[in-house]
Amino acid sequence: MSEHGPLAWREIDRESISEGFVHLIRWRGQFERFAGGWSAVVEREIVLRGDAVAVLPIDLERDTLLLVRQFRAAAAHQPGGPWQEEILAGLVEAGESLEGVARREANEEAGLTLDELVPITRYQPSPGASDETLHLFLAPTSLPETGGVFGLASENEDIQTTIEPVESVLARLDAGGFGNSMTIIALQWLALQRARGLWCAPRR
Predict the structure, then answer these.
(1) CATH 3.30.450.20, applies to 51-195
(2) Does position 2 have pLDDT exceeding 60, yes or no?
(3) Cα 158 from Cα 40, distance rounded (Å)
(4) pTM, to two decimals
(5) pLDDT in the model for residue 102
(6) How far apart are alpha carbons 110 and 66 in whole angstroms?
């Protein structure tokens, strides 16, 4: 936004490049400059992903969290390798609500039935290259004592769940133990809330 109000932009055209696991387009357009006038025509490759939902399940009675581990090909060369530890997540399909996706993914990836969903925030993980918008939720629920293996065979999913004490997970967060933004943001939000006395286990 400039001192005179919102800046303008215009799309000239877009071309589909690939529609495989992700939909990749070539976008051409222009934008208004802060100092006035229009930019030259800019060309960008953009991954179209749309909306996604991520959920952090918490058991307030046991003071535990549920996390998942699964193979992520794009993380193969990261220091921690391709098996990422994350919160539950999935893409929003046509006609689905955000809350509906949260409940569907919780059931598919962890065998959970969720009731209450508390909005955390929404953000774009990589606006320079993708239109994906993530909607984060906290889900107070009753968690099992131990994890298991879940996922849809039709989507070649192999998802391991773990149940861990909240303080242990937050300690690993402080030590840099997580490598994906949705998990880091959700856990940082939870840590901030607990510092304010919210979303803590009941006193015995």
Answers:
(1) no
(2) no
(3) 46
(4) 0.91
(5) 97
(6) 8
What is the Cα–Cα distance from 174 to 163, expressed in whole angstroms? Answer: 19
- The single-letter code of the amino acid at 132 is E
The pLDDT tens digits for 117-169 are 999 999 999 999 999 999 999 999 999 999 999 988 888 889 999 999 999 99
**Helix, strand, coil in percent for the chain, rounding step 5:** 20, 40, 40
Q: Where in the sequence of the chain do the CATH 3.90.79.10 domains occur?
A: 51-195
Q: 52-91: per-residue pLDDT in tens?
A: 999 999 999 999 999 999 999 989 998 888 999 999 999 9
CA-to-CA distance for 86 and 54, rounded, in angstroms?
Answer: 9
Locus of tokens 């997540």: 89
Number of H helices, E strands in the chain: 3, 11
Active site positions, annotated: 155
Three-class SS of residue 146? coil
Q: Token pair for residue 65?
A: 């969290």
Check the CA dihedral 3-131-58-95 and report its sign.
Answer: positive
Closest CA to 202 of 122, 160, 140, 153: 140
